Amino acid sequence: MKLKSSRRALLALALVALCGAAARAQVTVIKAGRLVDPETGTASVNQIILVEGRKIKAVGAGIAVPAGANVLDLSAYTVLPGLFDAHTHLCERTPPEDRDLFSNDIRETGAYRAILGTVNAREMLEAGFTTVRDVGNAGNYVDVDLRRAVEQGLVPGPTIISAGRIIAPFGGQYHLQPERRELGQPEYLFADTRDEMRKAVRENVHFGAKVIKIVVDDQTYIYSVEDIRFIVEEARSAGLKVAAHCLTEQGARNAAEAGVASIEHGLRMSDETMEVARRNGVVLVGTDFPERTALYLGAGPEFAKIFHALFLDRLKRAYRVGITMAYGTDAFFAVPGETRGTLALSYLDSYTEAGIPAPYVLRMMTTNAARLLGVEKERGAIRPGLAADIIATPDDPLSDITALRRVAFVMKDGKLYKRPEGR
To answer: Which pLDDT band, with edges at 50, 70 and 90, does 2 fall under?
Structure first.
């Protein structure tokens, strides 16, 4: 018995030594022609980024290249942190031929949603999104399972902050049949009393949610300030933030006064409500649909024009008011010729149309989003000690934000997923 124990101990020591040697060998040097700091909106030239394992070890000019390091020459590129999408639905995809926006929630199985999520996660990563917040519509915690699969390296994808099941007043975003009340399940956790709200939050926490998503106002009865504040406190006790879907002015006002982490959409927010949100540190995740993209919501060209105009007006006012904004898309549908990643980047059109400066949009997609998601000490910048989530484009996103549509290099957690052709 002692001999067997000794052998196991020796084997364990050998494995530790081998793993240590492997970890030390995983050194990559990136030569960046221009290195962008989104927080300050500045760029430095001829910088070296030293990546060891999953993290950034050093950044600066004139850093010595360690012997045996893997050198990636991006001296002709602009290098910056990986992008964030703070409002995604990876496990949902309404196809072009079926514009009944909610029927797919009922029809699709969890297995099919997992396949959709796997494809969409890879496409988001390839487009340069290294972190996303998935805000529900994933059936019975399929988004949580997708997050686990990415974390374990089973499938490629961005870091996922998953919401699990959406909490909402009875009906959620559906109009149910009296004989088929179960059709709202498992998409939503209906919660109308304080006990139901508490249980819904705790069920999400128990099954692995990393953020709590609520629908405030898709019914004629909406969550009050007190309701939302109760949910915020219950979530906070578990260390989670609350994202609040709000389409009406009153819904957004209630959420802003209750102190949620973020208001999603905020389509009809008044300047006064945005001021309340700004004072309370509430972030606006505007999901600002371009007109071309809104066409694929299925209500026709006139709807798309009006819908986009509402978003564009609110976006301009939000920038003027000074409420903090983070980039989010709500891209839950398919558009011919677009991957989920390129579709998410198409929302940049709204920001250029609204005249929002490129450095500000870049902060929305990195610094602001990282703080909202609570990962700013781990991701969202190129600094020593942070995860090596790094992308590069041949053009300058500080002068032209659409340069992000031409991402040629993607690294996440120190692993290379995309590189320029011929390099």
So the answer is: very low
Which pair of tokens denotes residue 189? 């956790």
Q: How far is CA 18 from CA 22, 23, 119, 187, in A?
A: 6, 9, 34, 46
Q: Give the span between the Cα atoms of 413 and 386, in whole angstroms.
A: 9
Distances (CA, A) of 367 to 61, 354, 380: 23, 21, 6
Query: Residue 253 is encoded by which pair of tokens?
Result: 């006002």
Comparing CA positions, the residue from 123, 124, 130, 151 lying closest to residue 80 is 130
Q: Which domains does the chain have, with CATH numbers?
A: 26-82+382-418 (2.30.40.10), 83-373 (3.20.20.140)
CA 252, CA 382: separation in Å to the nearest integer? 34
CA 334/CA 340 separation, integer angstroms: 7
Q: Is 155 in contact with 119 (CB distance < 8 Å)?
A: no
CA distances (Å), origin 149, targets 20, 129, 153, 154? 25, 17, 6, 5
The pLDDT confidence band at residue 98, using thresholds 50, 70 and 90, is low
Q: Quick one: pLDDT band at residue 207, thresholds 50, 70, 90? A: very high
Closest CA to 85 of 243, 237, 278, 279: 243
Cβ atoms of 189 and 204 within 8 Å: the answer is: yes
